[in-house]
Every structure is written in C-alpha cells, then in structure tokens.
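Subject: mismatched residue count in predicted assembly?

I count 579 residues in my input, but I want to confirm that the predicted structure covers every chain. Input:
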Amino acid sequence: MRAPEAAAAPARPHLLLIPFFAALGLFWLVPLGKGFLLSLQSDTLYGSVEFVGLDHYRRLLADGRFRHALLNTLLQGTFTLLGVIPLALLAAHLLRQVSRRLRSALAFCLILPGLTPPTVLAFLFLLVFSGPQGMLNSLIGWFGVQPLDWIRDPGLIKISLVLQGMWRWTGFAAFFFLAALEGIPQGYLQVARLEGAGPWQLFWRVTLPLLRPILLFVSLFLLLDALVLFEGAYVLLGSSGGTADAGLLLVTYAYYAAFTLGKFGYAAAMSFTLVPLAALTLFLLYRSARSSRLGDAVP
Amino acid sequence: MKHHCRASLRRLLALGSSRLILFLLCGVCALPFVWMFFATFKSNREIFTPFPLLPRDFSWNHYFEFFRSAPLPFGRQYLNSLGIATAQTCLAVALSAPAGYFFARYRFPGSRLLFFLGILVILIPRQVMILPLFSWFHTLRLLDNPLAVIFPGAVTGIGLLYFTLVFRRMPAELFHLARAEGASEYRTFLILLPLATPALLTYGLVHFVLAWHEHLIPLVMLTSQEKLTVSVGLASLYGSNLGIPYAWLMIGSLLTLAPTALLYLFLQRQFRSALADLIS
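Triage response: the counts match. Full output below for your records.
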C-alpha cells in the first residue's frame, strides 16, 4: 500500500509529452528557423548571400499584389467558412429526418468530395468549371442561362473558388455535425420544449451551444485549408492568380515568388506574415470557445 | 376537419421540400464521381462532354489495358502511398494522443503557451517552408527516402487539439480508479487508451485522408519513379502528353479515391460514437 500523500502528488509523466515536441522541434521549428533566417537574407541565388534585415518585410508593405493576395485570402476563407457551416448544419439536420439506411448512403455521397485527393479534384474541377460544355454550364443551360467563363472572368473566379471550397468541405463538416447532433441527449431538448421554446430558440439556445466543440474543430480544419493548404486554388488556377489576379491568394503568390521568380527570401517573408494572422484566428476561436463547455478542453 | 387537412398538407409540403433540398445537395456532391465512373468506359472522343453520362461506345478494354500496359509503375506507387500514409497516421496518433492526454490531465507553468505553440506551428504554410525543409532533410541525408514524407506530416496540431478534448471528456472517476489501483501514471494512460478506441480511429481516418492527399512534400522530397506516391505519379500522367486514353486517368483516379472511401465506409459507425462522446 502506498502512502496517500505519495498518491496525491505523483510525478508528471513527461515522457508522454516529449516525443510530440521533439518531433515538432526537429521537423517544424528547425526548418521554420531556417526559413526565418532566409526571410532576412537577400534573394541571391548564386554567390554570397547578404543579410538585409527587415527589408523584405518593408517591401511587402508597399507591394500592391501582396495586399491584394492577403485580402483575397481573408475573403475567400471567410466566405467559404460562412458558406460551409450553415449548409453543413442544414444538411446534418435534414439527414437526421431520413431513415438510418438512407442516411448512411446520402452521407457518403456528401462526404465523397472531402475524401478525394487534390490531384483527382484538379481534373474534376476542370470538367465542372471550364468551357461552354462544362458540367456547370450544361446545368445552368437547362434553365436557359448563357454559358459563363468560370475560370477566366475575374468576378467569377472568386465565386468559383468559394464554390469549390464549399463543394469540397460541406459534406465533411456535415458528417461531424450529424454525429454531434445524434449525440445530444434527447432530455435536454424535451426540457427546453416543455419550457415553451420554439424550434429556432431550441436551435440557438440548446443545439448550437452543445455543438461548440465540434464547431471549433471544424472551423480550425477549414481555416487550415483556407490559409495554408490551399490545394483547391492551386489545382484550379495553377501558380498564377488567374485573370487580373482575381484569384491570387497568399499561398499561391508566395509559391510563385519562390519557385517562378526565385525570390526565396521574399517568399519566406511573405509566408511569415501569416503567423500573426494564424495566431489571431486561434485566439478568437479560443475566446469564443472559453465561454462554453469547451473552455475546459483548452489547458 | 378542413383545418386538419390543411395542416397535414403543409406538413407534407415541408417534408417534400426538405427531402428535395437534401437529394439536391447529395446529387451535386456525387455527380462528378458518377461521371468519372462512366468516363472509364468512354473513348477520348466523348470523354470531354459530361452529358450524356452514359458512354455511347461502351468498352471494358480500358481496364484490361490499364493493368497490362500502365505507363507508370502504378502498383508500386500505390503501395508506396499506402505505406507512407499508414505509417504517418500511426506515428501521428502515437505522438499526439499521449501529448493530448498530458495536456488534458496536467497544468503547469507555460502549459497553455506550449499548447498553442503546438497548434500554431501547423498553421504556417508548407508551400514556402518546403525550401528550408528540403535543405534540412538534405543535411539529415533523408532525401528520396519515404521518411522525409512521413516525419513532417506526423506532427499535427489538430491531433493535439482533438486528443486533448477527448481525454478531457473522460470521466474523472476513471483516473481516480486507476490511481487507487496503484497504477503508475504511464500505466494509467495505457489502461485508459483502449477506452478511446473510437476517437483514435476517428482521428486516424482524418489523418489518413490528409496524408493520402499530401502532394507537395512527396513531390519535392522524392525523386525516383519507384519511390513516388500515387498522387504525384498520377499528376505527372495528367500533365504528360503520351497520347494515352483519358479513361486510364479516370481508372487511376478512381483507384486513388478508393482507400479513403473504403476506410470511411468501414469505420463510420466508430466515428459517430466517438463524436457523440465528445458532445454528451
């Protein structure tokens, strides 16, 4: 038998934590540090490199294309998020009303785009969006609408980008919401109904607060995709921004600067501007989560 | 009576319209895949017009030819991808589940900062970090080695967040019980781990999907044809001008989609219960 004092304050099992942070340091922090040094150096490809301090960052502030890309990224991320989450909630709500077997089949249809690798998506997007015979143009043609140039028209590029993001992730988000809705104890809803709450009140006051942990997880996933991965834009438009840079995003611009123009230092500086942005998003998500039951999920 | 009729009519209309919206949503999501399936039977002439969906000159030949004379080491690359994605997923779970457990159970000075660091680092674009990553792996002599793809992807902030959530949700009595039995802290973790099986599988799926979709890192880190992943190989096939039947690309695409789709179908019940646990 152990003494109760010894059991009350056991040593923390640090070995559980160390592997994660060791890997983080080795495979992320070291390259990140190297990248930061790169952002302080001149863009010389051959010969000796010069230390230029914050020059790249200063030039970024004056770069109109960079501001444009930043704005596009923010708009794109926001609108995709605003499109995906209500639509996914609606889909999850509607899925709950159909029989169990049909529900599984329909949920599978919805989640398929989220399971598809970007290489395959690239081909599908071309098929859907491009040319007068593309799938989207054929569909709107049935309603008598003239074919539109979804990939080249500057106004439509932005819409196409948001649409592809929505198409790709709505089912994925709906799957998480559906599982969460199924997990809500029926008692909560019954009590609220007895108290005289209408369907909307029920949704805003009971369902939504209970869904918060899942909402946080899904939002983080979507933002990660919008800010960082952005294979969607890349496969649709390549490393250019499309006509008049209408679809230019931070990540595509940085990629272009690095691998087409060879300005590695400048590109590294550009990608580091995302750090405060990511930190801010994370902070806002954390704040919104703290007021809920999720608060105890963050140490 | 008339009133009653109108009410039930309204209910019927509401039901009908909600079904319609649902079917429409599902149709929009699934249509390109239905097309892709039928396109595997189409000739190059009709493949670029999506409608009609059904092929006019139907033929199984593309499938036979694809497997007989594929212009890539497709099978080899497919196995590479499976191996890399599986290894990365296992490693990601092995790294982030214990870390999540630790954050869920213990508070110490700086724990919040460390937690946010773990998540924040992941939100930095890989596309540009790829260059320093490349030179770092060159130093480590890991280039053209599957490990160069497995390691960077295995560190995941989303996993950290998810497992912290999962272990926070576990009833505190379980921890007390394990301790009362005299189990060490490490042993407690191992005892409680099986209870989180649905959560482990759920995260495993999400990570497998991400790992399977990974494109840029294998593209840069791997050079030899027989070490490439299937996604990169397929992309090179799209870009090439070999005069091959486009139906081959569609067959390759379908096969590339298969692992993630099958994994989802096998495990969906587990995911539901894992996510439901997170709520209640």
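Chain A touches chain B through 106 residues (CB under 8 Å). Marking this ticket as 'not a bug'.
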